[in-house]
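Technical annex, item 7. During the second reporting period the consortium partners agreed on a shared format for inverse folding records so that results from different sites could be compared directly. Each record opens with the tokenized structure and is followed by the designed sequence. A conforming record, contributed by the partner at site C, is shown below for reference.
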């Protein structure tokens, strides 16, 4: 009876690890979608309102929620506290901090950091073009991740179940 309970617990445990890994992939995809939406909001403010980037962060923070609001508010406050600091430097520091908290991969973090640093001191047309390039790049990356997501989830779940079964076979 103990062997059966141990076997079931081992298989359930390895399957649970697979579910947790799949949940992390899904949550990262949600964060990437929110970052894409954030980029679009900032782009629309730059193209229509013609405000400077720190002011846009204040405006867009009211249109976002949670960590994104906190990140944008922190950027704006840092800019107010240290007016001589170049805003791209502030953007990079804050986006690196929050990107790590959100569990982004290195490549995704670089996209987040580069979005604000590319558009710091340019005229409006150049800002729009560089932001548009960042949005397109992120869109392509998200699409690539979506295509791979189902394959990865299937593979992770298979490895979880098969790993549990293999461990049970070895232990018995």
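Designed sequence (site C submission):
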């Amino acid at each position: 009876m103990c062997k059966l309970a141990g076997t079931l617990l081992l298989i359930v445990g390895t399957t649970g690890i697979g579910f947790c890994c799949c949940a992390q992939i899904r949550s990262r995809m949600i964060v990437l979608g929110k970052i894409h939406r954030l980029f679009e909001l900032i782009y629309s403010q730059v193209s229509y309102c013609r405000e400077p980037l720190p002011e846009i962060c204040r405006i867009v923070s009211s249109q976002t929620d949670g960590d994104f609001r906190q990140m944008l508010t922190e950027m704006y406050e840092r800019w107010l506290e240290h007016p001589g600091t170049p805003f791209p430097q502030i953007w990079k520091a804050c986006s690196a901090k929050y990107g790590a908290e959100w569990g982004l991969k290195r490549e995704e973090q670089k996209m987040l950091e580069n979005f604000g640093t590319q558009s710091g001191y340019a005229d409006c047309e150049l800002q729009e073009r560089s932001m548009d390039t960042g949005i397109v790049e992120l869109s392509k990356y998200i699409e690539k991740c979506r295509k791979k997501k189902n394959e990865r989830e299937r593979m992770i779940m298979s490895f979880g179940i098969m790993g549990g079964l293999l461990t049970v076979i070895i232990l018995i």
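The chain has six helices and no strands. Residues 124-171 form the longest helix (48 residues). All partners now use this format for quarterly exchanges.
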